Each structure stands twice: as C-alpha cells, then as structure tokens.
Amino acid sequence: MLIIEIIKYIFLGLLQGITEPIPVSSSGHLVMAQEFLGLHTDGLTFEIVVNTASLVAVLILFRKDIIELIIDTLKYIKGERTETVKKNFQLAMYLVIATIPAGILGVIFKDVIGDTKSVLLVGIMLIVTGIALWFIKNKRGQKLERDLTLKDAIIVGLFQAVALIPGLSRSGATIVGALGVGMNQKTAFKFSFLLYIPVSLGTALLGIKDIVETPPDTSLMISYVFAFVASLVASYFSLKWLQGIMERGQLGIFSKYCFIVGPIAIILALIFL
Questions:
Q1: What is the CB neighbour count within 10 angstroms for residue 263?
Q2: 216 phi, psi to nearest 5 deg
Q3: In DSSP terms, which residues pair with 143 in a beta bridge?
Q4: Does residue 173 have a pLDDT over 70?
C-alpha cells in the first residue's frame, strides 16, 4: 500500500510540475486528477508542498537575474545611480507593485480560493484561458525591460489577481497581460515568472499557519518528499520548454489544448459529478 501511495503522489507531483509553468492551470489539473482518478490528497498542505517545489525550480532558472536584482537594488538604496542599477531597481519596484493586487485579494479570499475545487469551474476557466491565449498568440511586442512603465506593471498585476479564480492559469494570465501591454516574448516570460516568486512565497508563508494548526498525517511525509522532488524536476524542464515555445511564438498550442480539455472537463463534470 505504501508503494501505491508513493506512486500516486509522484504522479500528482509530476502533473503539478508540468502544468505549473505552462498556461493551462496546474491547480485545475490537480482538481481534475483528484476527482476523476480518485487521487485525493490532504487538502491545501499538499498543494503548498508541490507549489513550493515549482517555486524552487523558478529560483534555480532565474537565479542570476534574482541575484542581480537584489544586488542592484541594494546599490541603488546606497546611492549608486548607474544606468544598469537604475534599470534593475526599477524592475524590482515594478515586480513589487505588480504583486500587490494578487497579494491583497489572496489574503482576503484565501479560504474561498482554497475551498473552491470544482471541475465544472475548471473547465470553464480553461476555455477562458484558451480564448485569451488565442487572441495574443500572434502578438509580437517590442518592449524590453528598460521600456516598462508603472502602468504596464499594474496591468500585469491585475491580470495575475484575476488568475486567483480557481482553474484560471496564473502564468497564462500574466503572459497574456505582459504581451498585451507590448512586451516582447523574452521580457514577458521573464516578468511573468519573476512575478511568480513573491506570490508563491506569500502563499507558502500563509500556508505555514494552516500546516501548524492542522499538521498532515506523518505517514504521508515520505509521499510528500517524492511529490516535492517530482514537482521540482518537472517544473524546471517545463519552464525550459515554455521558454522555447515563447521564443518561437507558438503559444497557440496551449490555446488549442485548453479548447480540448476545457469542454471535456465540463461534460464529465455534468455527467458524473
């Protein structure tokens, strides 16, 4: 039974890791997998574990950018005003500002978001994601990091806040928002996933209180470790895959995927759930 349990959690960890970076809603896929395959987990605790693994993958991929942003922000605070330092400080501030809408709504509606696990809603939101991706699939913006404005940061931040709706892809929403304000593919990819870091950290910190108050079954700890590793590895390679897809301008494949899986989820939800 222990081996079966571990395999179950490895599968969910892989599913989370593969779908977290790409614009198809990882939370939505976890909901569908748990409902249709009977792979029920220990609530929000498991989601925090696998999401933290995805966060680690993002930190690894963008480690040089993150270190540069931190160092140059500290230099700016100390009074250094070179062009590179100013550019990176500005980007760091825009990331902070873009995080605020989702941060506020996440705190206010944390319980609602955590308790809402509807396959029907996931199916609807996948179709919404597909429509949004379809409209921007051929978008070729010109804005680089140095061209970003406060307005751009606020708009992308609002898109991320909307993605708190269960089943709506966070990466999909922020990429659509970023491309919509004119960022090029590379800048949109980078801004979207740097923006993921504070939100994911905030989610993990907010979840600590719930984990302390309602600790998971100790018998699941081994399964959680395997799920964490599976999610970490899958997230990293999925990120690299998405990076290549965006550089080639092929986001339309995710739109088609959402148009296929979304209606299937709705039909199955109406028939069986």
A1: 15
A2: -70, 160
A3: 183
A4: yes
What string of DSSP letters covers 38-73?
-----HHHHHHHHHHHHHHHHHHHTHHHHHHHHHHH
Rounded distance between C-alpha atoms, residue 144 and residue 147, angstroms: 5
Spatial distance between the Cα atoms of 99 and 93, rounded to a whole number of angstroms:
10
What are the structure tokens assigned to 195, written together? 């923006």
| Max Cα-Cα span within the chain | 63
d(CA 48, CA 104): 19
> Can you state the angle between helices 43-61 and 2-19, rounded to 10 degrees?
50
For residue 114, the model assigns a pLDDT of 57
Joined tokens for residue 5: 């349990």
Q: State both tokens at 4.
A: 């079966």
Q: Band the pLDDT of 43: cuts 50, 70, 90.
A: low
CA distance 263 to 123: 6
Burial annotation 160-191 (CB, 10 A radius, 16+ → b, else e): bbbbbbbbbbbbbbbbbbbbbbbbbbebbbbb
248 contacts: CB under 8 Å, gap ≥ 6? none
Q: What is the DSSP letter of 216?
A: P
- Lowest average pLDDT, out of 181-185, 192-196, 215-219, 241-245, goes to 215-219
Give the span between the Cα atoms of 242 and 103, in whole angstroms: 25
- Residue type present at position 107: V
How far apart CA 209 and CA 204 sit, in angstroms, is: 9
Round to whole Å and give the CA distance between 172 and 205: 24
